[in-house]
Amino acid sequence: MPLNIKLHRVDKNTVKLILGGQINSETWERLDKKIAELLGQKITTLILDLADVDFVSSAGVGAIIKAKMSLMRNYGELALLNPQPQICKVFDIMKLLPAMSVFASVKELDEYLTRIQKQVIEGGSGAIV
Asked: How far is CA 129 from each of CA 14, 35, 65, rounded to the nearest angstrom?
C-alpha cells in the first residue's frame, strides 16, 4: 500500500503532514525526504497527522525518530496527531511513549502549541517540562 502525504502549512514555522496508508520499508524514504525538505526550510514545529496511517514498520518508526532528533537539535518540536491504537502500540512496545508528543485531537495539540509559544514569548526555550 502506498503512502499518501499532504502538506498543510499552519504558519511560517509550523507544517502539518497529513499521512495516509502505510509507513514501511517501501515508503519510509518518501516520508524521510519530505521531512528533510521541510527541515531545510527551518520549520520549528512538524505535526504528523496519522489518522489514516494503518501500519508502521520499524523503518517508519526510524524515519519519525530521525525527524524528532533533527528538530530537537534545533529546539523544534515533533508532534504525532490522531494515531490509531495499533500505531500507538508500536511506539509503546518500542518504549518511545511518552518520549513522543502524541495528541488525540487537534484541540489537545493546539493547547500544547499555545503553551510552547507562550513560553518562548516569555523568554524560555520553548521546551515543555
From this structure: 21, 25, 19
